[in-house]
Amino acid sequence: MKILYKNILIRDAKENDATILTKWWNDGKIMAHAGFPEGINTTVQKVKHQLQEEIKNHKHRLIIEYKDCPIGEMCFFPCHDAVEIGIKICEINMQNQGLGHTILTLFIHELFQKGVPKIVLSTDLNNLRAQHVYEKIGFQKYDIQYNYWKDPQGEMHSAIFYELLPQNFIHQRK
């Protein structure tokens, strides 16, 4: 996949992206919202292997660039009658600038153009910033699971689940 809009590029992750992905995934500040306040303690080799396995399993990892610099990552994969997605703006100084909304809108537009019938995602119930962005784009809550999973520190996390149909997609670009 390749999406280019103004200074934003969304592209397929390559093997040499394993270094930046490892840096981001090991950073507790970046991963805290996902329940990993100490990062996930991985290696470049493990991430390279994961990227290869994802391709075999029809999961697509994408890199988000802004002004030619990697700032985050996305993924998508088939899930029953839908496509499940994930997004993370990993460079802290690029968060809260409206880029997430724009990037997500570009990505969703592309998926619907390819004929995806429904997009689903989930986030931590405490991640209010993400929920605001998802709802602004048209995602609708369909479930909340309390104490859904346990993080490495033994804390339970609740999750909120969203879905988006093409007719509910609000896609103004900034």
TrEMBL record:
Keyword Transferase applies: yes
Protein name in UniProt: GNAT family protein
Entry's EC annotation: 2.-.-.-
Alphabetical list of InterPro entries matching this protein: Acyl_CoA_acyltransferase, GNAT_dom
Domain (N-acetyltransferase) ranges: 8-167
Pfam families the UniProt entry points to: Acetyltransf_3
Keyword line: Transferase
GO molecular function, one term: transferase activity
PROSITE patterns the UniProt entry points to: GNAT (PS51186)
